[in-house]
Design brief:
Layout lengths: L7 E7 L3 H12 L4 E4 L4 H6 L5 E3 H9 L4 H6 L1 E3 L1 E6 L2 E6 H5 L4 E3 L2 H15 L3 E2 L3 E6 L7 E6 L2 E12 L17 E16 L9 E4 L5 E7 L2 E8 L10 H12 L11 E15 L2 E2 L2 E3 L5 E2 L7 H22 L3 H4 L1 H23 L9 H13 L3 H12 L14
Parallel strand pairs: 1-2, 1-11, 2-8, 5-13, 11-18
Antiparallel strand pairs: 3-7, 4-7, 5-6, 9-10, 10-11, 12-15, 12-16, 13-14, 14-15, 16-19, 17-18
Helix pairs in contact: 1-6, 1-8, 8-10
Bound molecules: flavin-adenine dinucleotide (FAD) and 3,4-dihydroxybenzoic acid.
Length: about 400
């Protein structure tokens, strides 16, 4: 569809990441129109290497939405995770501790590819390479999105706007000053992540605590390994030639009877670690979802999953409103999502704090506390169960009732 073909839609969605694409698909299935505006190219969005761990609830939803066929074929279902410290591995069995639940390893860009294919097949509009998106009138009953596409200035009038444009997007900034409370914690380290063309060295993920810093072994397929190393928050990737990366990974993962397989590195990047929440997650006719309104440090693997949980609530609220004029779901959107968001924030902060070397820990006090916590986790079924049920994902919440709305 060309941009000339429409001037109005029910839901204007900014951003074609997991949040925007899942929302668009859920709405389409309810017969609700939306237009998705994305500032990058399709190629860029489909190639962006990010998350890899899908919670059970995310997988179940994608399957229910009809976009889980390849995920079910190619995704790697894991029933446990290894915590490695002091050079020894300890397995946390998710299935045993959570009544059979688990996680699925399937790259975020694969989820995005499947959702884009479904969107295009549905014929619903999704515009790439859109410039200068400007939400306006969000305090009124007729918000709009101004933007430029193909060199032309456009305006899309909407009933509501969904800001699914990630942490650096424009929607959060469209809220008037003072209407949102921002809470943030920035960590004094980042992650250097690589993709290597080599079979994984273990069947399951390994979260590794080491005096030299945290390391994580993950994967994308039986042929591709994903590895992360704790690094400086502003690390210069040029300082990390492949040999240095492998040497550091070998040092941190060292474990008797186990060795790390090496292969050609095909992708390298540095990610800072941040916790951030903007409250409430809505203003007037603007509803924020996913990274646009909260960021978690990557250690708990929660970001993509939280984005999906948000838009599930938003899609239900919008369905109630468009189908029956019932505004309660929309008014309660933020109140419904935030308790689960904060639990995920806590889990991600806790995992991050337990595994990373703290730069100002001169006498090793923090490292000793971390080791005590890890020891406890691996010797107490109660503690291990808490980690397992958070890792596989807390239940998705349903819309708040009138009395819960603040
Ligand atoms: P995004 O994916 O950021 O999508 C926003 C979209 O909006 C983008 O396509 C962007 O191009 C577009 N956009 C931005 N600005 C504009 C604009 N002005 N106009 C139009 N479009 C715009 N999460 C997990 O759950 N599990 C994991 O294992 C995990 N691992 C991670 C590992 C790494 C290295 C990183 C970086 C992140 C990881 N995450 C993980 C987090 C996860 O990737 C994000 O939380 C997720 O992408 C959030 O989805 P989103 O749709 O809200 O935002
Ligand atoms: C991956 C990313 C994470 O943040 C995490 O905690 C586990 C795995 C991954 O990219 O595979």
């Amino acid at each position: 569809m060309s941009t000339k073909d429409f001037t109005h839609t029910q839901v204007g969605i900014v951003g074609a990441g997991p949040a925007g694409l899942v929302l668009g698909h859920l709405l389409h299935r309810q017969g609700i129109e939306s237009v998705i505006l994305e500032n990058r190219s399709r190629e860029y969005v489909e190639g962006r290497v990010r998350a890899g761990v899908l919670e059970q609830g995310t997988v179940d939803l994608l399957i229910e939405m009809g976009v889980g066929e390849r995920l079910q074929r190619e995704g790697l279902v894991h029933h446990g995770v290894e915590l490695r410290f002091g050079g020894v591995g300890h397995r946390i069995p998710f299935d045993e501790l959570t009544g059979g639940r688990g996680i699925t390893i399937y790259g975020q860009q694969e989820v995005v590819k499947d959702l884009i294919a479904a969107r295009i097949e549905s014929g619903a509009p999704l515009l790439f390479e859109v410039d200068d998106v400007r939400p306006t009138g969000i305090d009124t009953d007729s918000p709009a999105l101004g933007f430029r596409h193909g060199g032309e200035e456009r305006e899309l009038r909407c009933d509501v706007v969904a800001g699914c444009d990630g942490f650096h997007g424009v929607c959060r900034d469209a809220v008037p000053d003072g209407a949102l409370t921002l809470r943030e914690h920035v960590y004094p380290f980042g992650w250097l992540g690589i993709l290597a063309e080599v079979e994984p060295s273990s069947d399951e993920l390994i979260y590794c605590h080491h005096d030299r810093g945290f390391a994580l072994h993950s994967m994308r397929s039986p042929q591709i390994t994903r590895l992360y190393l704790q690094c400086e928050p502003d690390e210069d990737i040029e300082r990390w030639p492949d040999e240095r990366i492998w040497a550091e990974l070998h040092a941190r993962f060292e474990c008797k009877g186990w060795s790390l397989k090496e292969g050609p590195i095909v992708e390298k990047g540095v990610t800072p670690m941040r916790s951030f929440v903007a409250e409430p997650m809505q203003h007037g006719r603007l509803f924020l979802a996913g990274d646009a309104v909260h960021i978690v440090p990557a250690t708990g693997a929660k970001g993509l999953n939280l984005a999906v949980a948000d838009v599930r609530v938003l899609a239900d609220a919008l369905t109630r409103w468009f189908a029956a004029g019932d505004e309660s779901g929309l008014r309660g959107y933020s109140a419904t999502c935030l308790p689960r968001v904060w639990k995920a924030q806590h889990f991600a902060w806790w995992m991050t704090s337990m595994f990373h070397r703290m730069p100002d820990d001169r006498d090793g006090f923090m490292a000793r506390l971390q080791r005590a916590q890890l020891d406890y986790l691996c010797s107490s079924r109660a503690a291990a169960t808490s980690l397992a049920e958070n890792y596989v994902g807390l239940k998705h919440v349903v819309l708040a009732t009138e009395d819960q709305i603040v």
